[in-house]
## 1
Amino acid sequence: MKKRVFPIIIITVLITAALFFFLQALLIPKHMSETKEGAMIREYYKNAGGNEVVFIGDCEVYENFSPVTMWEEYGITSVIRGSAQQMIWQSYYLLEETFKYETPDVVVFNVLGMLYDTPKSIGDSSKQEAYNRMTLDDMRWSKLKIQSINASMTDEEREKGGIWNYIFPILRYHDRWNDISKEDFQYLFHRDQVTDNGYLMQVGVNPVKDEYPRIPLVNYEFGDTCYEYLDKMRILCEEHDCQFVLVKAPSLSPVWYDEYEEQVESYAEEHNLLYFNFLEHLDEIGIDWNTDTYDQGLHLNVYGAEKMASYFGQILSVECGVEDKRQDVALTALWESKTETYQQRKAKLEAEKQEE
Amino acid sequence: MAFTSVNFLIFTGILIALYYILPHKIQWIILLVGSYVFYFFAGPRYLAFLLFTTITTYLGILLMFRKNHSAAEYLQQHADYSKAEKKAYKAKVKSSNRAILIVVLVLNFALLFFCKAMLVEPIRSSMQGNGTLSFLTLGLPMGLSFYMFQSMGYLIDVYRQKAEALTNPFKLALFTSFFPQLVQGPISQFEDLKETLFTEHSFDRRQVAFGLQRMLWGFFKKMVIADRIAVAVQELKGSEYTGFAFFILVVFFAIQIYADFSGGIDIAIGVAETLGIRLPENFLRPYFSKNVAEFWRRWHVTLMEWMKRYIFYPITVSKPMLNLSMKAKKKLGRFGMRLPIYIGSLLTWLATGIWHGFNLHFIVWGLLNCFVIVISEELTPLYQKFHGRFAFSNKRGYDVWQIIRLFILINLIQVTDLFENVGEYFRKVFSLTYTFNYHVLWDGTMTKLGLNTADYVILLVGVVLMFLVSVLQRKGSVRKQMQKIPRILRYVILIVLLFAVILFGSYGIGYNASAFIYNQF
């Protein structure tokens, strides 16, 4: 009789653990129908590798550049590793992780991230926590993820469970039992693809109405933390023998002040980096704020992103020397498939838009 | 490091592993180090208070021990002393020990009083003046009242020669700081705790399992019930909730304070049990009591026991009181004879109120309890006549009525805890007599208290479960009773309880998880 006790205990522990991980998988938000930004980090690992250009940054990269267009027009293979309100240290750790999978020729960093120096920079703690989760939840476990979590946590996160909330997300999402939907069961163990190589497509049109006011600020200086991580990214790229290019995507808000511009220009000059502020090239790119934005100039829609990709692809080819890979049969097959998916998505979204 | 944090679970897990893996000889040292690590995480500055109590208690005990020891030797050497001479010498030694005792008690209670006083805003402001003395704004060190009462109780027992004098300062430090009971008790007697605290323990699977089960039950009570209902309690405190809404507050607070405090004690006892250490029970199904005196024999048992041993009895059996009793009996009869008991009760309840805090509402709480107990005592002959005359009063139905009556009465007193403004408290109590707003139950008020329908369902299930467990406890340990059911079913029950805590617990981001109510004392 006694001998049977330990197997029963072991089976019970295993069942408990299985139940724990099942419930955890069930309760984690899936981000399939709403806030798709939360699904982007996880998606990268499916098709990681083989990209010549890596974009790093926040919504100003994943909404404004279309990798498929760059492939179609220049044969450039690229991927975007961006997420909503991605802080600069998160960008750094994601970039370091990306080097495990990629050997890119160019890393493009969008400098809007220089405005946010601490997790508190964007104000509301719960909002920042939500953004943290979208960036960090699906990052693969490694020392880099731990470092990124430690650098990102809000005060409330530190007080209430700290890193354990990330190690066991059920501790964070336990109260979602009240909001469980069909989607939670449907995507229990898999996710649909929501982006095209990191680009989150939007087909809506919401023209710019008024010019965004340039309210004078008390302080225009980028924080030390931002410079620290910008330096780290630059050095990381040097170590991996890859060009580090700075860009300012053509988004009208948050307002990009001249004082910001001077600091980035000065940094780029000091370190001999290429820097492109696309806000200064809107006519050359062909951006029309009546048709190319889905949210009054905060981000480009797919038509704007394609124009942007077309313009920047030229720069990457000519000035950065990124090769045209369309002669590579395997890559061409892969990207043709990606292009098809992209076009189908575009057509589907446009059809849905028209139905509205 | 809160009991309900992941860090605490990891800390406890590591400690239990080290405790059983390392040589058993050093188990008590592991506990001592662990206890200080635990306290360090509560706030390194508070260690000074713990050390102060430990060192002063140790010095007091050591001095008394040496005096008693040398007195014994002296009397041995002077065996030719007459009985009177020996008595005089012993009295001299005792007087000297009493002086030591008083010094240590005064030092410690002065510190406790000071810390409690500093929590009261007008006192703190007047003491602080314009200066910025940071120690005045430290707040109450975690568990100060608990470990100080435990240490002082032990010191008094050593003085009375009812407990052995512990001359190993590190063992005394462990007795003072044993981490599970550091937060909110229970307050142990040295003679009880020493049996298991300093002895070596081999790993006992069943004992560890029992400890973990007790912890799990504590987590359920605290995180699923107490912290969930706390939101509504905070809301119902508002001045607009009078009459029946106030009655709902009374019931909700009764559930909260019981689930919170007894849940915390379950965790403390459970942790100790996993280590093979037995802590005293602090709750003996108090809501099944039929009168206030009985309730206080079953609620916060160890504090009330302490108060009885070290305040009530010494007062009531003191010479002046016995003299008073004799004189008063002649003039006032039965009441006069019992006068010392009433004075003792009054002072004990005043002390208990002050133990909770230097606020008027705590003193009112103590006095109300005392008042009800004294009145009940005085009316005892009347009750007896009533029970003799009416047969129905001896039936089970009447017992239920008594239990319900006590539940309402005691919780009308307990709820003073929520009202620093005593006037507001009495206004609300009196509103029960003229505001009959029963419609709050169905007019949407209940859903504006921070709880939704699902929360109420969880609370209902949780409270029913607590009630059933209490009913089962009347037949003895529930865990032992569970041993009799099939193992599979037992495991299913425990797994369900575990996931109930994980899923329905009020913790983490977005929740204002409240600290254990008794942490503040």
Note: Chain B touches chain A through 21 residues (CB under 8 Å).
## 2
Amino acid sequence: MVALVAIVAVLLIVISAVQTLKIAELWAINKGKVIYEVTQKQNKVQALLMLVFLVAYFAFFAWQVWKWGDLMLPVSASEHGVVTDRLLNITYAFIIPVFVITHIFLFWFAYKYAYNPNRKATFFSHSNKLELVWTIIPSIALTVLILFGLSSWNEIMTPVDSEKEHVLIEVQAQQFSWSARYAGADGKLGRAGVEFIEGVNAMGVDIKDKNSKDDKIVRGEIHLPVGIPVQFVFRSIDVIHSAYMPHFRAQMNCVPGVKTQFNFVPTITTEEMKKITNNEDFNYILLCNKICGAAHYNMQMDIIVESKEDYEKWLAEQKQFAEN
Amino acid sequence: MSATHHHHEEQDFLFKYIFSQDHKMISKQFLITGFLMGFIGMVMSTLFRLQLGFPGESFWAIDFFLGSWAENGVMAPDKYLALVTMHGTIMVFFLLTAGLSGTFSNLLIPLQIGARDMASGFLNMLSYWFFFVSSVIMLISLGVEGGAASAGWTIYPPLSALPQAIPGSGLGMTLWLVAMAIFIASSLLGSLNYIVTILNLRTKGMTMTRLPLTIWAFLVTAILGVLSFPVLLSAALLLIFDRSFGTSFYLSDIYIGGQVLEHSGGSPILFEHLFWFLGHPEVYIVLLPALGITSEIVSTMSRKPIFGYRAMVTSILAIAFLSVIVWGHHMFVTGMNPFLGAVFTFTTLLIAIPSAVKVFNYITTLWKGNIIFSPAMLFSIGLVSTFISGGVTGLILGDSALDINIHDTYFVVGHFHIVMGLSAIFGMFAGVYHWFPKMFGRMMNNTLGFFHFWITIVCAYGVFFPMHFLGLAGVPRRYYTNSEFPLFENMIDINELVTWFAIVAAFAQLLFVFNFFYSALRGPRSSQNPWRANSLEWTAPVEHIHGNWPGEIPEVHRWAYDYSKVDENGEYISGEDFISQVVPLGPNEKDGGH
């Protein structure tokens, strides 16, 4: 019944719209107009709207920055993140002026050069000089961005020197949870693979490998020491996941059959970050950022950054793999 | 072909409207099918926007459209992913690839180069019917057991390979793959036809440097399609083998549903490479026709030659070339060798140069013009705006070091919807408003067009601009709801605002739908050259006839952009502000942009 009423209502609306349009067109024809031509009056209105839109668009942009600026991620909690944030700001300093200036030209010209029957458009079909200018200027700006970007990228992606003091953690993803394994005192992760998964050994660690014995498996949260490089190794046992740690400007996919890696140096402890963000409940998180199934939207693990002493104390409390 | 066109005049309904081999009719078939698919894709997006704006709330509309996918009017999490997947697939391939290229390449190539029809009318008809069958299969997949494909439009395995991982990877994914294989066949048939037609069937005098920019764009688009779509086909075939015949191209070391799978030795990263080898050129397959259409309209409606014709052609070629060597920028954080990441950053950022040249040339074309704001012109100006707004954020995403932290966040969603989605659909709308008289012999209503444009552009930016902020706050895409994270608690206001804009934008499209059908059936009859334009299609009669021109095909004597050309006394050479391509050059007149 509701559907029938809805159909009738839609039909009536369409019919009345058709009739209205028809009457409007007959009216215009009666007044001797070629009805599909854009009239002078309409053209002026559209030209004016170009200006209105330009202002409104910029106002909307500014309003968003003002309104939502505070919701953005806080200052980077990793060493390389400070560099990428600076690179991001440099990129902004380049693209926002480009965005603003080109939009001003676009909509201002549209407004200014609206049709006027008493004026002729200028036949201006090319200018090598102009075209050279706006090929070369972007090229120079891009060269700067590319060089800066590539040097940051190389630094970020270079694995931690294994001779240096560092923490080695393997993070394993599966639908829809995370587990982690610390290398333990020998600094080496034992062999692992899906073929070893059985019962409590959910990460599939090879019991026979001597490097596995002191490995420590944790779930729910991982702890990181501040100021010490952390080398992550990522695995997945089912589909592709992505380990995303936005506060550390860190992300790497977890791919079944492939070991991936990422490293960073945490610089701000959880306690300090609570003060910076003015939020008592603040917590660093690791979340899944690659579509992985129905509960993709809720696949997370907490990260606690603390002093080296606290970290070592926490790690000592965790059971070794051999004890299980 | 020119000799035989008289045989086709008497045709029954079946061959005139259904199995037509006439490029003008096929163009309309592509347009209507494409728009129908696009409309379905838009309704899907409105429904999942409801879920994102008001998570967990029950809606009559969700209940009505989704039925068993949404108990009590709340969609299930895996069905949300199915909607997102199908929305992406439909919009990218069915609306903006087949709908856009299929419509305008078919309509304009023969008419603008002065040909009787496409090189092969039969292949052209097959191209449409493959597309039609593919569309039907894709729609059927919405109703099968387990639901439609749900692994994202990029269908990365193993998620797309294992029904245990998500229900949509069962029969729904099989149909998705079958539909896409047929779609690719359609695209290849069309593209080969376009290339051959443009290269071989140009009328006398229509040199490559006199081609309108639309044709250049269609040509390069078709070449890109021929080069890259087969790679997607091979990716899909290997996936079918992995799914159904136990091979391990993409699968290895998988433990799911309590057991270890026997697949070993494959790598999902191989699939990503194959997918994006099409996937990135695909962006330009979608975008270039829109840019070509805009070039034509901006020049015509500014009553000025397009600025820098040769630079425009060069930048189309440069963009197309670069687009084939940048695919890895979708894979910076997949675990691909970091050195490759560096190379792809370099090539990706280079694309900004030809893109910037195009933008500056559009703006200079407006400068000192005499602009008529037809709805087509409005959408063209809108395209330049979206191309800039979405393009500049590409410099952030294309920079591997910056991409790490915004990869797969809403920043990406905002970026590509503006630069690719909006630009392409604006180009498509512009094309429909502009060439409607060529298609239907009638004119669309301007006032409705004005409202359609302004509501659409305002709402489109209202939907996609705030997404950049979500992304910078770290909100991942493809989340059913953000409510599971305290970090994202404050984002609900943004999501709500976006959803409202999306709803208004969706309803505004009804203005277009109404205008389209009303005008096609009842609109005022068009004159032969309503926009007073130069290109060849406007020398053909309003009535559609086989072979396009009743007598000889006109000969071309000049480029397509002689608008407002004046002599030394400052008077229009032709007495009017345009000179058709068929008018011979005067004694002291130079051709082209001199």
Note: Residues 438 and 536 of chain B are 12 Å apart (CA to CA).
